[in-house]
Amino acid sequence: MQRVRKAVLPVAGLGTRMLPAAKTVAKEMLTVVDRPLIHHVMSEARAAGIEHFVLVTGRGKGAMEDYFDHHVELEETLRAKNKTAILDELLADLPKAGEISYVRQMAPHGLGHAVWCARDIIGDEPFAVLLPDMIMDAEPGATAQAIKAFEQTDGGNIILVEPCPPGEAHKYGIVALDGQDGRLNRMTGMVEKPAPGTEPSNLFISGRYVLQPEIFKVLETVERGAGGEIQLTDAMAKLMGEQPFYALEYEGTTYDCGDKIGWLRANVALALKRPDLGEAARRALAPLFA
Ligand code: G1P
Pocket of ligand 1, candidates 9, 41, 111: which has the most ligand atoms within 8 Å of its Cβ, to mutate? Predict the structure, then answer.
């Protein structure tokens, strides 16, 4: 079985739910506590053993390339002022040269199309997909849980799922299971953004996948689905005829940071958990709820 070494992070989305900020700030660059959303998600991927990151970008997303690069003037200034703690942190979090590739999606044809754009860089090996809108606060991390399940199932396709809040299934991809025994179950189907009342279960696809490279062939021919877009869910449903797919109900808390309230919750929750900020954050926030 091949090891999961590469990850695709689709970051070309317009972020319409985060307007007006997303007009000129890539939504993936919005900060959660003190670092951009994309930084949290990259750290999760790295902790899972990912060695190469493919960012599928689009117009107006250039700040991400600068973020994952040296900022020589800033580093020199921090060095001159002896601000070594923050300098060391900045340098430790930088990917090494050659570990990130950027590929432009060029047109907003949907998540399936975005993943397909990474095909040449991924090549013929299993890979992870992380949707950067979703902060998945978990220990071990959500991607690590997905890769462990991948190893346990001898190399199927793994999709992290979680129970959907009532009445929200139409916003997500929803999976159908072949019975439920524990957290890891074989899937029998999935549907993207089902009409209200038609969803096959209450488990939604929450933003981390481990997929086999055969998905690229399917993405090439799959018809446009929900919203007139090329949907990753439709391609996976098609590939399910040839390869096993498993849903893992992961252990952790998800914050949908593509949404204003989800993003706000992530900021508060992660600040409260930080050893260096938690107590001060609690004191500062408490009067707002009094
Ligand atoms: C995408 C996926 C969907 C998944 C969701 C999670 O939808 O297509 O299956 O449930 O992300 O956020 P989008 O949010 O791009 O509409």
Answer: 111
Cα torsion through 249, 251, 253, 254, rounded to 10: -40
Q: With cut-offs at 50, 70 and 90, classify the pLDDT of residue 155.
A: confident
pTM: 0.95
- Beta strands 6-10 and 127-130 are parallel
- Give, as one character, the DSSP assignment of residue 94: S
Best probe residue, ligand 1, of 109, 175, 205 (max atoms within 8 Å of C-beta): 205
Element (H, E) at 77: helix 72-80
Write down the H helix ranges in 28-104.
Answer: 37-47, 62-67, 72-80, 84-93
- CATH among 3.40.50.300, 3.30.1050.10, 3.40.190.10, 3.90.550.10 for 6-289: 3.90.550.10
What tokens does 87 get? 């300098």
205 lines ligand 1 (CB under 6 A): yes
CA distance 51 to 164: 32
